[in-house]
Write a sequence for this structure.
């Protein structure tokens, strides 16, 4: 009979190697997971850094709306991404280009389209090539990493005579180009807003029953002095009236004050009024074009084929252009048979807009990532990861940066990750949340006044029709001003009001339970004070949206309207 | 005879199982804890510098003390990338403070320490500005108990390998003052 010792020893001899192998295996798996998490964090940090650089560059640049300046800012942000990636991966000192091999694409989603930063073949056009000398050292065909042409969030619609391309944006602004129901050309743009009335006789404009009027002057600091200003097409013009005999208007260009030659008519502005009035007229025009009758099923690809449904990470259909959503009227103004206000989140228009943006981003991006394999030197095959729903909702609602990092070995497998970071400090888009209400703009700066969220409980009883104003939240950000005489930089806050503690920090005093801010304002509009708050808010929202830079406008003509 | 040999083998195995294994796993866990402490401390230290734009000797000593409290000795490497003004402004719109477009020059650990703790015994603050980058990496230099045990049993760890390491870095987001 075998002794217990034998049994024990044999047991240990069998079990020990097995347990050693298992523990080694498990610890290798754990290391892989650890590494994956740490890479995810690094990618998040890096993406955040790139967004931060983008914010710092654009907030201090008055020309950041213009395409060439924007491209520079975005290229600068992409550079920051790679510098920061190198720092995060502890490869500081190396050339950050090494890491470009692992980044198939950076996607900068902006107001009405997006840029993809990825490698491409730099082909020269026929004309340039024909002009090259015979012994030219550069003849094109070089592989470069850079920004590809801007891609709009646009979609083609065909219905009878109507053949248009509609470009969507992060809010309710659209651009329509193509032919209308009578075969005439269209090139138009505007905001889609429901429930606006306009009396062409008296000029009265109402929105949701609230009368919208031109505003009196807005003031803001530039350096130590406060000036009246108007913002036209993304540029703020300040009135320098320190010398009453010589009043001049100036702008801030390259961080320095520069005076403009032609003065403006008035420092009062009617941007909010124009926003609603022009939206009213735009809707009438859309009706004349026959665009209002378009349904989802009319959406086709540029080649004219039907669009494939948008699906989520598990393959569930989110939006089916031809099937379940096919008969949805895209432009569902409530007086045009729609069930909800077109500018609100739950409208058909919004669902369709989000689906189109998502479709465009997804198709272009997967092509860019697939093409990356043609440029990469490695054996790893780059693939487009499926983005989660939460990430999509972030991409679709604000300006953001999507970064991809793939092909790094992390023990058991190859890393394939992405990161989405929102840029919530930008002058690209004015969301409903980005309007804050300043209680009293006339308070002298020795005793600062307070600004609130519009959903601050009981705010309607604290505002005053003439002294309270809505302000774009970017105006509370610190700005810099270069001095013309010395090489110093002055930092200042354009608006010196202080944030309300209970609605920004503690958030204890914020009204909840409403789907969106419109519903809340509708609910308080039964009282006179509530209507005043709604008026201040809607005017500010309209003013800020209207005074944003728009590619569609002729800048010269637009500015001249105010002269 | 065979019995007593087996008994000896059993005793040896029992000793290994009862003492060495728990010891190894204990020392592994203690390294894990050190790793966590060092990681947290490094992240905190770097983020503190990044968000205040100031690197003082006090901060550095506090950080050094915090990680030494794990009972190991560490090699701390710091790097500051200073955003330099671009000498060749490309266009009329060029701004000297644009991040991502301009060149950086680097300061490494010894230069940083020379700045914040100069040889005359005074302590100074290194002021950083918006757009600079700061990163720190930490590695243990001593051999921890778990490394020793592993070396003894399966000699995997060489002399220059480390088990506790942390690194963190990123953009400085504030203009610090040297006062």
């Amino acid at each position: 009979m075998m002794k217990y010792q034998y049994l024990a020893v044999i047991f240990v001899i069998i079990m020990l190697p097995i347990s050693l192998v298992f523990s080694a295996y498990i610890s290798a798996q754990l290391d892989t997971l650890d590494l994956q998490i740490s890479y995810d964090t690094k990618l998040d940090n890096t993406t955040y850094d790139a967004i931060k650089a983008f914010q710092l560059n654009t907030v201090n640049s008055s020309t950041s709306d213009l395409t060439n300046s924007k491209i520079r800012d975005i290229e600068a942000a992409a550079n920051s991404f790679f510098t920061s990636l190198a720092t995060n991966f502890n490869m500081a000192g190396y050339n950050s280009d090494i890491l470009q091999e692992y980044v198939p694409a950076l996607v900068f989603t902006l107001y009405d389209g997006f840029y993809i930063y990825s490698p491409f073949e730099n082909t020269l056009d026929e004309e340039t090539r024909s002009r090259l000398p015979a012994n030219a050292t550069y003849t094109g065909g070089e592989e470069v990493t850079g920004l590809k042409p801007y891609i709009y969030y646009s979609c083609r619609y065909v219905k009878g005579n109507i053949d248009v391309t509609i470009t969507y944006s992060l809010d309710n602004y659209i651009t329509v180009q193509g032919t209308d129901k009578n075969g005439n050309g269209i090139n138009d743009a505007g905001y889609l807003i429901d429930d606006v009335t306009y009396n062409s006789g008296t000029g009265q404009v109402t929105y949701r029953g609230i009368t919208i009027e031109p505003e009196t002057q807005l003031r803001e600091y530039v350096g130590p002095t406060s000036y009246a200003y108007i913002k036209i097409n993304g540029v703020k013009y300040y009135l320098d009236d320190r010398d009453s005999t010589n009043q001049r208007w100036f702008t801030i260009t390259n961080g320095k004050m520069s005076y403009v030659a032609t003065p403006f008519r008035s420092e009062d502005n009617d941007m909010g009024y124009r926003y609603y009035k022009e939206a009213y007229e735009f809707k009438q025009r859309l009706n004349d074009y026959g665009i209002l009758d378009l349904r989802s099923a009319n959406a086709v690809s540029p080649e004219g084929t039907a669009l494939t449904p948008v699906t989520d990470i598990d393959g569930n259909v989110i939006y089916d252009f031809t099937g379940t959503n096919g008969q949805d009227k895209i432009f569902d103004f409530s007086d045009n048979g729609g069930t909800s206000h077109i500018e609100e989140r739950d409208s058909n228009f919004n669902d369709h807009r989000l689906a189109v943006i998502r479709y465009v981003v997804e198709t272009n991006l997967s092509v860019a990532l697939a093409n990356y394999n043609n440029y990469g030197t490695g054996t790893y095959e780059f693939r487009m990861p499926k983005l989660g729903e939460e990430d999509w909702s972030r991409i679709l609602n604000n300006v953001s940066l999507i970064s991809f990092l793939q092909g790094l070995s992390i023990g058991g497998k190859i890393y394939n990750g992405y990161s989405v970071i929102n840029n919530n400090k930008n002058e690209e888009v004015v969301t409903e949340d980005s309007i804050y209400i300043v209680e009293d703009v006339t308070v002298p700066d020795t005793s600062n006044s307070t600004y609130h969220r519009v959903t601050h409980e009981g705010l309607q009883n604290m505002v005053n029709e003439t002294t309270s104003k809505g302000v774009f939240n970017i105006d509370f950000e610190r700005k810099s001003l270069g001095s013309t005489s010395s090489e110093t930089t002055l930092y200042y806050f354009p608006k010196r009001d202080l944030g309300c503690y209970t609605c920004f920090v503690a958030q204890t005093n914020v009204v909840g339970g409403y789907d969106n801010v419109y519903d809340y304002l509708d609910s308080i509009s039964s009282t006179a004070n509530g209507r005043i708050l709604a008026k201040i808010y809607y005017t500010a929202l309209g003013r800020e949206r209207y005074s944003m830079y728009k590619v569609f406008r002729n800048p010269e003509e637009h500015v001249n309207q105010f002269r | 005879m065979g019995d007593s040999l087996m008994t000896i083998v059993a005793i040896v195995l029992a000793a290994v199982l009862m003492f060495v294994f728990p010891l190894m796993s204990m020392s592994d866990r203690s390294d894990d804890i050190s790793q966590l402490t060092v990681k947290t401390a490094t992240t905190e230290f770097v983020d503190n510098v990044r968000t205040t734009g100031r690197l003082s000797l006090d901060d550095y000593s506090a950080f050094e003390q915090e990680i030494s409290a794990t009972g190991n000795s560490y090699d701390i490497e710091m790097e500051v990338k200073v955003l330099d003004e671009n000498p060749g402004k490309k266009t009329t719109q060029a701004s000297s403070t644009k991040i991502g477009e301009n060149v950086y020059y680097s300061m490494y650990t010894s230069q940083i320490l020379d700045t914040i703790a100069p040889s005359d015994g005074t302590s100074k603050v290194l002021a950083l500005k918006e757009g600079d980058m700061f990163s720190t990496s930490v590695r243990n230099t001593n051999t921890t108990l778990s490394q020793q045990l592993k070396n003894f049993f399966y000699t995997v760890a060489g002399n220059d390998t480390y088990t506790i390491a942390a690194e963190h870095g990123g953009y400085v987001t504030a203009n610090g003052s040297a006062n």
Q: What stands out?
A: Chain B is about 45% helix and 20% strand. Chain B touches chain A at residues 3, 6-7, 9-10, 13, 17, 79, 81, 92-95, 97-101, 104, 106, 130-131, 133, 135, 137, 167-171, 173, 175 (CB under 8 Å). Strands of chain B lie at 54-56, 74-83, 104-108, 125-127, 133-140, 165-171.
